[in-house]
Amino acid sequence: MASSLTKEAAGSTGGKTFFGHPRGLATLFLTEMWERFSYYGMRALLPLYLIAPNGLHMNPATATAIYSVYLSLVYLLAMPGGWFGDRVWGPRKTVAVAGGVIMVGHLVLALPSEGTFFLGLGLVAIGSGLLKSNISTMVGHLYDGPDDPRRDGGFTIFYMGINVGAFVAPLVIGTVGENVNWHLGFALAAVGMGLGVAQFLLGSRHLDERSFVTPKPLSAAERASTLKKSMTWLIIAAVFYAVTVVTGVYTLNWLLVPITLAGLVIPVMVLVRIKRDKELSDVEQSKMSGYIWFFVAAALFWMIYDQGGSTMAIFAESSAKNTVFGWDFPVSWYQSVNPVLIMALAPVFAAFWLALNRRGKEPSTIVKFSSGLVLVGASFFLFLAPLTIAGDGHKAAAMWLVAIYFVQTVGELTLSPVGLSVTTKMAPAKYASQMMGVWFLAVTAGDCTTGLLSLAGVSLNGTGVVALQAALAVVAGAAIFMYRGKVKRLMGDVR
Q1: From CA 15, how far away is CA 17, in angstroms rounded?
Q2: Beta strand pairing status for 320-321 and 396-397?
Q3: How many CA atoms lie within 13 A of 128 on its CB side?
Q4: Is the pLDDT of residue 349 over 70?
């Protein structure tokens, strides 16, 4: 999913422009492009390295679980990452440090040692969570508030940086990792992030002054309390895992299962806490009730969608003809299909919605959302065809997988931008700056569901399981459409 958190902000910088926008946008565009290059390159390699005989040689279920837990952590940590930028270091310093942490994480992954591999994954997840929220905040700082006519265009350019990095990464990092050396591929991801950090530091003088400021710094008492609580939980975790290791009972599941369960429990706790807040007005309470429909549906969408990098990639590695006109290509290249389709189709969708709006026929948020769910379900119904072909002892053509990615991308463009928009519109005033993080917890919940199924031994490449997921998404999309009247009433004035 190539998208980022956004926050309302004001202000702009003068001087030279970047395609008519503040010069600082170029700095943030390139930082995000290189960060996405490193992230998507490593992500494309991850499941393949985990199952490869010359990699960690794990079974597909364990590989899928690790991949899903890793993705869920990135989005789970985006919310505390935003808090850290707001309360501790400020956006600019947080992004600079986050980039360094990501680079170190990739370098650790590049070490030919299984013992340090999960440390590297953890560092990349922490750095990505810190960076994701704060870099988008700084884009908002470049403009004179939400009504600045350049604002939407600025985020569109920034969004393109995400997809450029995501498109190129599998072609470069994936090729080197699969055909030359896995660890050299991870090292290239570190180089990409290093370039991003270097140009960010060199170009940070073009950022708005507010990017250097901590908006709501912790008081001395709050800082001491936060540090004390953090250290307490860290010590408890360290002691617990030390005991499991010393007693010889430790397995990888001791790490994966708690994270997976936390990724399911925390989103529920956050939504319940907001919903039970007595300071919310009746209108805000109603909107939050309506928002829960979208949240649950989004979790189901991302559960299926993110398997494009795990379940489908693992299938492609063993059961697909990865050739075009007789020319073999690395399996990781499939991960470039989505970003190139996003870049090609996003302007088409924007123009299409605008044309329908002018005629008074643009579908409502609810209809778009239900369509996205139906489409992601349809993509997995389509997945049944190559699964059946492989089940008969043949290898499926690459275009089957490309077709699945195409349908999923259309679903993403129907649901994801709408989800981001409806989150900002339905957010209670008290939680306005937190709700984008809440939206990304839907990704966490979806990926953790996939991880939990994999840890339970469910074969996600089985035709029955794929068909069940597809049917569940289609039924959920139909249910939202059928109950659109009820949801619309809960949404109040939001359309």
Answers
A1: 6
A2: parallel
A3: 26
A4: yes
